[in-house]
Amino acid sequence: MYGLIRSFKSLGVYSTRVQALAPVGTQLLHTSSKVKDSNQASQTASSVFSSTASTSEPEDFITVSAGKGQGLVRIREFTYSTANFHVSPRKLRMIGNQITGLPVTEAIRQMQFSAKKASDKILHSLVWARKNAIFQKQMNPDNMFVKLARVGKGKYRKRLDPKARGRFGVIKVPYSHMKYVIWEKQTEEKPVPRNVVEKALLAGELPKRKVKGFTLTKNVWVPLKESKPVVNPKPYYNW
Q1: How far is the C-alpha of 189 from the C-alpha of 174, rounded, in Å?
Q2: Which residues fall within 8 angstroms of residue 181, CB to CB, at 6 or more apart?
Q3: CA distance 53 to 45
Q4: From the first residue on, what is the mean pLDDT of each consecutive set of 10 residues in the chain (239 residues)?
Q5: Contact 194/72 with Cβ under 8 angstroms?
Q6: What is the side-by-side order of every strand in the sheet holding 144-153?
Q7: Distance in angstroms (rounded) separating the CA atoms of residues 181 and 96
Q8: What per-residue confidence (pLDDT) applies to 195?
């Protein structure tokens, strides 16, 4: 019987009628092997996808200090940097001081209405930083704020400054860049105290210690506070 079935297979005329003549054990053997192969393939595929899913979810949260006496908090962090462009580091540092500590949406709004020449470049870079933080770190744009805005020097481009009697000077054209550190506030999580004193401070059981000489007055100078209304402006600068 097996030799007849093998000959029919070699001739290509193995039909269902010939398959019905085969013993039941051989049919069960073929079906069980097919089911086993399919189960192994499904298990292998599921194990591959499960391992990929488990490794493709990085831990984005980091634990940082919320301040002196305020414990530890878990936040998401995203860094972004602009390219070197033609601006003085001194002038760009003023813009960095203006947007530090502001929400990202408010910083973009401040750059939109700023009269500084470099604010246009900073505006576009802040928009790109917010977009990349949303898609790469899954951060909430409503809770994002600019933690740090560092300004770094770039290369100097030199130009000749011709003067009288055949002499000349060298003009240095400055370039600089700005790096952002964007944090996402976790409003639903409570800070974790690091010691007994912080635990008492967070619970409100101990009053904060008053240090002599560090009390802030009302007239604190803030650089580039453009939201402050101008009343009776003078025809000259005050500084």
Answers
A1: 44
A2: 77, 78, 79, 146, 147, 148, 149, 150
A3: 12
A4: 57 53 50 52 48 47 66 81 94 93 93 92 94 90 91 92 94 94 76 72 65 60 67 68
A5: yes
A6: 61-65, 72-81, 176-184, 144-153
A7: 11
A8: 73
Of 146, 156, 153, 154, the closest CA to residue 96 belongs to: 146
Q: What is the pLDDT of residue 28?
A: 46
Whole-angstrom distance, CA of residue 232 vs CA of residue 234: 7
Per-residue DSSP letters for 203-215? HT-SPPPPPTT--
DSSP 8-class letter at 127: H
- H-state helical runs in the chain: 2-11, 16-21, 24-55, 89-99, 104-112, 119-137, 196-203
Query: Which DSSP string corresponds to 41-84?
Result: HHHHHHHHHHHHHHHS----EEEEE-STTS-EEEEEEEEEEPPP
The residue whose two tokens read 């000077």 is 169
Give the model's pLDDT for residue 110. 93
Name which of 85, 78, 86 is nearest 104 in CA terms. Answer: 78
Residue 47: predicted pLDDT: 47
- Which residue type sits at 62? I
Is residue 105 within 8 Å of residue 141, measured between CB atoms?
Answer: yes
